[in-house]
Write a structure and sequence with these properties.
Layout: H1 2-10, E1 13-17, E2 20-25, H2 28-50, E3 53-57, H3 62-65, H4 74-77, E4 83-87, E5 89-91, H5 101-108, H6 129-145, E6 150-151, E7 158-159, E8 162-166, E9 190-193, E10 203-206, H7 208-211, E11 216-221, H8 227-234, E12 255-261, H9 266-272
Parallel strand pairs: 2-12, 3-4, 3-8, 8-11, 11-12
Antiparallel strand pairs: 1-2, 5-10, 6-7, 9-10
Helix pairs in contact: 1-2
The structure holds 6-phosphogluconic acid.
6-phosphogluconic acid binds next to strand 5.
Amino acid sequence: MAAAAAAANAATSVKKKEKSSLLVFDSEEDLSVALAKYTAELSGRFADERGAFSVVVSGGSLIKSLRKLVEGPYAESVEWGKWHVFWVDERVVPKDHPDSNYKLAYDAFLSKVPIPPGHVYAINDSLPAEGAADDYETCLKQLVKTGTVQQSAATGFPKFDLMLLGMGPDGHVASLFPGHPLLQEKERWVTFIKDSPKPPSDRITFTFPVINSSANIALVATGAGKAGVVHQVFGDEHTMSELLPVQMVALEDGELTWFADKAAASKVQDKANL
Ligand SMILES: O=C(O)[C@H](O)[C@@H](O)[C@H](O)[C@H](O)COP(=O)(O)O
């Protein structure tokens, strides 16, 4: 598809594995330029096709890598009024707390572009984890009913137009951590965790069936701390170990594109001589 193909042209190297591509950029700066272009292209396509663009973000360093999207030319050219913004996971803290993923995205991104406030779906921060997960799931069900968020014909789960996801150095995505029972959740759209190994402990998170029903996912990995995981996913050796959460990202009917800088892809490059 066009957006991923254009991003691949800008990459220094591309490696394909099963249904995903790994795009490697010389620097995080180059990566952020390509990520902005990719996101703007998808935004244009979905806004034209269906009059809305549903975008899911994570917390962490991903938000910084989105900085080029709020600069020219995209700050002016993107149809921000058609965006609907969600969080793949959120820490159960007040929205103005330094740990809040909402606050992180608001300060660096959302406050800089004219997305209608009613299109920004933050969690209800007056509820404890379980209630906040229920509330977010109810909100998604309503938005699927009205067609703001599409539904996957294959799985019945919501089909977001784009998820922009970071990944932890331990291979976690969203708040789905290695070895945790939540990795096996098959029914819920949104669930909660009270023993997150990465603080804070209480969080809500999308489940794998929702993540894997997406139309597009950009998985962004920057810095040497992510090199081991990128190698585990894209290296040519087969390990017998249990799959990391990030290896469970496998789209039913969509396109998964990894954006890595040189540091994050260093072990793959050494081995595969990209
Ligand atoms: O709330 C969170 O902790 C995030 O949503 C989390 O899933 C994040 O994306 C990864 O931990 C990667 O974070 P870094 O890129 O900062 O390592």
